């Protein structure tokens, strides 16, 4: 099973992007999926997560109201719509598959994509 993230790019402050994460394998729909981000020199931080059945979504306080996570289990894809972007949102964004543990804890995720760079200019 692999995760392939895409959709990053350079955008002006206030702009929007939609990140995608495509998963191979048949069990995608069984798992909670999450997005994290990381800047050089800092720990990877939780951004958002969505339960396997889309009923529950979770967001960090820093992105709540601006970012929206969704998924399409028929397409084995999870999305992150990021809006009202700020320069401090600049980071590499990673999608991940959650195993056991708290959804905000990066150690609870057992499979990671390669990351996609989001750069927000002021």
Structure description:
By secondary structure, this protein is mainly beta. The chain has no helices and eleven strands. Helix content is 0%, strand content 49%. The strands form two sheets. Strands 2, 4, 5, 6, 9, 10 and 11 form a seven-stranded mixed beta sheet that branches. It is globular. The model has no long low-confidence stretch (mean pLDDT 96).
Keywords:
122 residues, mainly beta, 7-stranded mixed sheet, 4-stranded antiparallel sheet
Number of strands: 11
Strand content: over 45%
Class by helix and strand content? mainly beta
Roughly how much helix do the residues carry, as a percent range? under 10%
Strand and helix order: EEEEEEEEEEE
Q: What's the main sheet like? A: 7 strands, mixed
Overall geometry: globular
Q: In angstroms, what separates the terminal alpha carbons?
A: 38 Å
Tell me, rounded to a whole number, the average pLDDT: 96
Ranges where pLDDT stays below 50 over 5 or more residues in a row are none
What is the rounded Rg?
13 Å
SS field, number of helical segments: 0
Topology:
Elements (H helix, E strand, L loop, with lengths): L2 E4 L2 E4 L4 E7 L9 E6 L6 E6 L6 E3 L7 E6 L4 E6 L8 E8 L10 E4 L3 E6 L1
Parallel strand pairs: 2-11
Antiparallel strand pairs: 1-3, 3-8, 4-5, 4-9, 5-6, 7-8, 9-10, 9-11
